[in-house]
Give the backbone structure.
Amino acid sequence: MPSAATADSTRPDLALLIPSYAGGGAERVALFLARTLAASGLRVDLVVACAHGELRDEPLPGVNKVELGAMTEILAAPAWLRYTRRVRPRCAMSMIHTANFSAALGARFNSDVPVIVNLRIALRCDPGAQWWFRKWFGFGTERFLYQRAARVVGVSQGVADEAAQVFDLPPDKVLSIPNPRRSREASMQVASEHEAWFDKSVILGVGRLAAQKDFATLLRAFAELAPGRGLNLVILGKGPERKALEAQARALGIADRVFFSGFVPNPEAYLRRARVLVLSSRNEGFPGALIEALEAGAAIVSTDCPFGPREVLDEGRWGRLVPVGDAQALAMAVSKELEQADVGHAARRQERADWMQRYDPDVITNRYLELVREVIEESKDAARAR
């Protein structure tokens, strides 16, 4: 039988909980952190509630995968509690709302495992968080649980500030760490079957085909732009609203110039060849599409939604900001970008590169590494004081 010291030495330093292997931005960031924190010397368990999704076969060298086998993401809490009591990770961290609830519940019933909760989107308009307990109790349940977390991390300063207010959290418990820009390891080729879309100038939209992204407003804006211009609209992503959006494009008379690609693992090649990247979202937390567009040197038009676009674009310095849901303003802003000769902001390329340093993968990894180590040390101090 292993000694207590031996058992303690094999405890993971970090258990990183996500709902599934879905191909969304938060899941990608979670897998990035699992890889890079493991490469930095932490023992990392990637704990997945439901073992399905596009990212299931992503290579994770040095990371121990733990699949809880939950029937649904919402019902993963009991399996997570059993895992934390059995394995006793030195620190736990969650991403995405369903995982955050399970992790925070674990903090309530397993106090020797400190929890870091990551908030990825504006709380008051998070479409994935409208569960029965919020509908009945508002934010009371989450406030009770999140106040027991070691830290609450907002993916943008706006998300962090809102969390501090909504959950009544002390300032030393709340911080903001953005997502990293994407590494350039993946293929940067436009799929051969999509090449014909670029015979005309392309307006590009990127994101899940869901109400939050408000591609319906982008379609209305494109319908105003298209007459008399050689333009195509290309939308990268998949989701439940595809059929409705295709029907809307037909009704607007633009179906022959609107193309839905489905899921594209790396949109950089599309961003480099598009004339303008348009983010039409109603709400965000930290829009990865804008970071990718900045990295690719694309021209950008975005809604000034809560939260993230204004922060990422430095108050509009690196792209045009327009009101949410205003198709006419969106069309006008895109038109102005199309008229600019310096679409890629070449004259300010170095300034833009300097701005992007804050999203460098090594910078973000080091910030999380410092946070995890700090939380572990605080937990040790608390244990010694008991």
Q: What stands out?
A: The CA atoms of residues 130 and 138 lie 9 Å apart. The chain has 15 helices and 13 strands. Confidence is low (pLDDT under 50) at residues 1-6, 129-133.
